């Protein structure tokens, strides 16, 4: 069947929703996040009053279900470890134990970030001719900055890697205030910024343009909870700056509580994400 009309929606150079009409009178709607997360697109048959969902092939469904479970579990566990580390820092003895808790939690974030990118890399693509999703060959990497889902998950993964530098540097002993700011605080700020950019693109993707409130969209809740976590992480990072003159942190309490609450958001987002699957 040949395509006779196609309408694209999105923001800037990014397309987040495509609507096209098939020669048999059916109308198909592809949306970036449902296709990537749930392997679904919507088809309204000619003359039908209600649309119906159409799944991708079995290989894509099983593949993305496994990837989603791994990513969701990694963020849930990583967020839980970060929250535990922040609680120990606020109420416990702190020291090297906290740094190691954060470091292990960061490894889980690395896994979650990369697997999220794999979801975008291997998401099924729309076949305009028949109004269906078609499988891609398995890939461990791709470069597709013109896709909003790829760019969002790439920035997320990059953010987790930069956080890794921050967490690895925090294990070093005997650093001066200037060295702490360069090796620990600066990567922390960069990682938080990348997380915020990733979350903003995810909101644009799910809202098909300017971010808004969509309480009936489950994907919106997942993205919003994670974005709140990114904001809280940024607040914690700002409060964790070490003053070179005195060697003291701006506000230890805000740094710890911001990390704890932000980590709980990411853990909750991971648990929610588990149910946003094919």
Topology:
Blueprint: E1 3-11, E2 14-22, E3 27-31, H1 32-38, E4 40-44, E5 52-55, H2 58-91, H3 96-121, E6 125-127, E7 132-134, H4 148-169, H5 177-207, H6 218-239, H7 252-274
Antiparallel strand pairs: 1-2, 2-3, 3-4, 4-5, 6-7
Could you write a compact summary of the structure shown?
The protein has 278 residues and is α+β, with helices and mostly antiparallel strands. Helices cover 59% and strands 14% of the residues.
Task: Characterise the protein shown here.
By secondary structure, this protein is an alpha+beta fold. The strands form two sheets. Strands 1-2-3-4-5 form a five-stranded antiparallel sheet. A two-stranded antiparallel sheet has the order 6-7. Helix 2 (58-91) runs antiparallel to helix 7 and helix 6 (218-239) packs antiparallel against helix 7. Strand 4 and strand 5 form a beta hairpin. The relative contact order is 0.15. Helices cover 59% and strands 14% of the residues. It has two domains: 3-55, no CATH class; 58-274. It has seven helices and seven strands. It starts with a strand and ends with a helix.
